[in-house]
Amino acid sequence: MKAGIVGLPNVGKSTLFNALTAAGAESANYPFCTIEPNVGIVPVPDERLKRIQAHIQTQKVIPAAVEIVDIAGLVRGASKGEGLGNQFLGHIRNVDAVLHVVRCFEDPDITHVDGNVDPLRDIETIDTELVYSDMESMERQLDKLRKKARGGDKESQAKVAIFEPALALLEAGKPIRSGDWDAQQVRELSRAGFITVKPVLYLCNVDEDAAATGNAFTAIVEQHAATEGAGTVVVCAQIEAEVSELDEADRSDFLGDLGLKEPGLHKVARAAYALLGLQTYFTAGEKEVRAWTIPVGATGPQAAGVIHTDFERGFIRANVFTLEALETHGSEAAIKAAGKLRSEGKEYIVQDGDIMHFLFNV
Length: 362
Prior knowledge:
Order of helices and strands: EHEHEEHEHHHEHEHHHEEHHEHHEE
Mean pLDDT: 87
Helix content: 40-55%
């Protein structure tokens, strides 16, 4: 799963991306910060991994991760090819969610492209370009679909019934995600490559003084986000850049002095994970304790397929227990003896935090 960082120039987007990927590079299990010049792997902090390892000793601990794409800065006219518009729009179509960095700090030494700080105007600038881009794409696709629909093509008729109300939203200057869609309609719109159907998380980049509490700018962004069902995270890119260069032992003191309990990027990673509709299950054995990423609502076979397609194809059953059972009984053998080890079949809906072992035959 991918999340793309977007924003106007000089909002702190690349500083945040570099801090995120520096955090990813620290892990022995993620020995590189980027897999392309603008793509990084960001581990999702999860204290449950340490709690599992306290009872099941393993050689490695591997967290879940989100792929973050740093997308070229957008300017007005991007939908018409201005600046790096085509590159921006091409990259953003390939991500599953959008992390929109909004400047929420004053600094006379950092020029704003529009002369002053105004979060709502900045959000509207990007939204407008994405709406224009989607509108152009929607009109092209609808022209072809309507011709097929008039010829009796059932699939095209079904798509027209979804796309036409989506186009009405775009023509009103609203993103597609602001409509009332069911899960199947969202999948159809996403498969068609529309950008504004993607979920959005606003990252309010503040100065050091506002890192713990936010400020008047972040309040404005939070209010706007609430109107469209989006989330917000307050983060100071400058602090995160400094934290990424500190040794682990020095970080707590540094953050504590600023009134922070954890790096803001931990909140970003967790929020991005939730934004993508993801959850975690765990495997634990002699070699590793590992967090595996699955969509909310995944079945046992689908969860097994994340490890290997053979596991899904030959799925027999899954042995499942909870972290709470592990902490109560101390080992998998003791959990089984206490009758707390469950055997689940193909219809089982995996729960966040399940610890699982799969039995399969191919």
